[in-house]
Automatic annotation (TrEMBL):
It comes from the Bacteria. Residues 2-116 form the Gfo/Idh/MocA-like oxidoreductase N-terminal domain. InterPro entries: Gfo/Idh/MocA-like_OxRdtase_N, NAD(P)-bd_dom_sf. It comes from Levilactobacillus koreensis. This is Oxidoreductase. GO terms for molecular function: nucleotide binding. Transmembrane segments: none annotated.
Length: 333
């Protein structure tokens, strides 16, 4: 069993912990939160071995093989660096790091700890439905572009409208719509098409100075990918990949719960692979097999592919922000 700890006690950590239990590959060895009552309650609810209010103490005492980091974005880098310094593998919630400086520094540190593995928790690109999209894409005679949309109204935007500054809408925490929901379709684009040759971002800022929604253009030589994302409104339209006469349609570039391929006459073939018991279970199973057999040839190939996705997504997100002069305090460190 893989001994794992968590940093963060929000809804996404709860979903991850439930996926860990379903996988039967992990032991929940430690829960970290700054607040004792929160850490204790989360640990009790999920039958964790121990709770901590000091992150370094958890790393030192819980005998971890891995730690899952789902704290505010601006804290990811320091927490991940502290873990690998103790040869503890890290699963970092997307986006893993604030900028290119952090990613480059982390990659260098990772090279100094060859037994450590780093995973960015981009759950949707590990799902059977994503693999169905990859297979359908490989069968298209040509690709003429794509349009990916992911917009979900955030209840925390109500707090922004009330004059508050929730973490997810502040640049101080390396947050905003691009980092929170835009990363999902950006991940799909990078995983399917690779690194774009040029990117542009057109953000709409909210009262906190962070982006609440936006449109990104990723240029791939002879075609473009348009990404629409936001946390201040809802979107219900399909995401699409355009072939010549065929089109791959996706219900949401963030959820990937329903996938179809439409022929020239509009006839649809359902490519969906069924519902998941937990949307994070496929990534948890993928991470477990790499952690348990890191030298297996297929696991090595998969790990290197996921690592390259993470490196490229970080570069694309940073380049998009630069194009729009959208900076974070973390960029100046």
């Amino acid at each position: 069993m893989i001994r794992i700890g968590t940093a963060g006690t929000n809804w996404i950590t709860q979903q991850l912990v439930e996926a860990l239990a379903l996988s039967q590959q992990f032991t929940l060895a430690g829960i970290y939160s700054r607040h004792s009552e929160t850490a204790t309650a989360f640990a009790t609810k999920n039958h964790a071995e121990a709770s901590y209010t000091d992150y370094d103490e958890m790393l030192a005492q819980a005998k971890l093989d891995a730690v899952y980091i789902a704290s505010p974005n601006s804290l990811h880098f320091d927490q991940a660096m502290a873990a690998i310094a103790k040869d503890i593998s890290v699963i970092v919630e997307k986006p893993a790091f604030s900028n290119q400086r952090e990613m480059i520094a982390f990659k260098a540190a990772l090279a100094e700890h060859p037994n450590v593995r780093f995973f960015e928790a981009a759950r949707h690109v590990h799902t059977p439905n994503f693999k169905a999209i990859e297979t359908a894409l490989s069968g298209l005679p040509t690709v003429q572009g794509a349009s990916f949309t992911y917009m979900k109204y955030s209840s925390r935007y109500d707090k922004v409208l009330a004059g508050e500054r929730p973490n997810i809408f502040t640049r101080e925490f390396s947050a905003g719509a691009l980092q929170d929901v835009g990363v999902y379709p950006i991940y799909v684009a990078v995983a399917l098409f690779g690194q774009p040759s040029h990117v542009d971002l057109f953000p709409t800022l909210v009262e906190t100075g962070a982006d609440g929604k936006g449109v990104a253009i990723l240029r791939y030589g002879d075609f473009d990918v348009t990404v629409s994302f936001g946390k201040t409104s809802n979107a219900y339209g399909l995401s699409e990949i355009y072939g010549l006469k065929e089109t791959i349609t996706i219900d949401s570039a963030g959820e990937l719960t329903h996938v179809e391929q439409r022929a020239a006459d509009g006839q649809a073939t359902d490519l969906s692979q069924g519902d998941l018991a937990n949307p994070m279970l496929p990534e948890v199973m993928d991470f477990a097999r790499v952690l348990q057999a890191p030298d297996d040839p297929q696991n090595v190939r998969d790990y290197q592919r996921w690592l390259q996705w993470s490196l490229t997504v970080n570069q694309v997100l940073y380049s998009l922000r630069v194009s729009a002069n959208l900076s974070f305090p973390a960029d100046a460190h």
